[in-house]
Amino acid sequence: MDQGSDMGSISIPDVPLKSSNRRMPVLGLGTAASPFSGSETTKLAILEAMKLGYRHFDTATLYQTEQPLGDAIAEALSAGIIKSRDELFIASKLWCSDAHRELVVPALQKSLENLQLEYIDLYVIHWPVSSKPGSYEFPIKKEDFLPMDFKSVWEAMEECQNLGYTKAIGVSNFSCKKLGDILATAKIPPAANQVEMNPLWQQNKLREFCKAKDIQLAAYAPLGARGTIWGSNRVMECEVLKEIAEAKGKTVAQVCLRWAYEQGVCVVVKSFNKERMKENLDIFNWELTDEETKKISDIPQSRGCLGEDYISANGPIKTIEELWDGEI
């Protein structure tokens, strides 16, 4: 992995994305807050992160954070915190209700308007299911789910990249099988797949698949997503991780992030607390031992985010098993 360009106080390594000329910083700041933190709080946290050296920011239509992120970018440019927009890596996501052939490009155009940008660096399909157009609510009403036409939606994603609205395209919450469905017809293969991944859900099968297909894996919930609707303290309270952290004089969060980095995975971590944002950056100048890595690989595995909100008895995905194609 190459070291990124000078990124203020800390330089974050980056990795190349296939089918794109962009490089993705391996550590990014997530902006999904449950409940929504408010625009001003979000904007100030992003500005603080930029001062610390963060350059990768992850948002989505659903998060309601595109606008405050756009405001923060504009402010950072005018204050000289960053010299140019090109220093940043901005990722956003297509919501289920826009996951229809004719709605994808307009959805990204709307995101660009919110962000006050001419392009983003990565645009991903948020979940592998569509819903009735025109609604941006969560959870989605069970009767509003529709099967996703992977072929036509992906063609529209490719159009987004060909038009220059995004430098790379990808997916989120896609199993090996569903990625295979996209790859079967794709002219531009997905550059990334953003999924839940942490020491208690290591995604071994998906990691191997993505590595073989040159798809960069990005981890959300690397610390277990406590404070979200579905998250818990189970990662932060894991005894194995606590023991390793204590032995190294690090925090459990740092051990989790370092572990993911050593697996070749990009990580999106959400914290609006300045000290924790700083702490999360301190993972690049030390290593886990082989023994520590082995201990982590032996941790019993279970998925944290089951995705129950995306299944419905009469919808296209009726069970958790179907959503993840057995990867549970």
Question: What can be said about the biggest beta sheet?
Answer: 8 strands, parallel, barrel
Encode the helix/strand succession as letters. EEEHEHEHEEEHEHEHEHHEHHH
Strands of the largest sheet, in order across it? 3-4-5-6-9-10-11-12
Head-to-tail CA distance between termini = 30 Å
The helix-and-strand class reads: alpha/beta
> Counting H and I runs of at least 4 residues, what is the number of helices?
11
Number of strands: 12
Unreliable sequence segments: 1-8
Radius of gyration: 19 Å
Beta-strand proportion: 5-15%
- Overall, the morphology is globular
Overview of this protein structure:
The protein is built from 11 helices and 12 strands. It is an alpha/beta fold. 35% of the residues lie in helices and 14% in strands. The strands form 3 sheets. It has an 8-stranded parallel β-barrel with strand order 3-4-5-6-9-10-11-12, surrounded by 5 helices. The protein has helices at residues 39-52, 66-79, 104-115, 150-162, 176-185, 204-212, 239-248, 252-262, 274-281, 290-297, 320-324; strands spanning 14-16, 23-25, 27-30, 56-58, 89-94, 122-125, 130-131, 145-146, 169-172, 192-196, 216-220, 266-269.
Quick structural overview:
The protein has 328 residues and is an alpha/beta fold. The chain is 35% helix and 14% strand.
Keywords:
11 helices, 12 strands, 35% helix, two-stranded antiparallel sheet, 328 residues, alpha/beta, eight-stranded parallel beta barrel
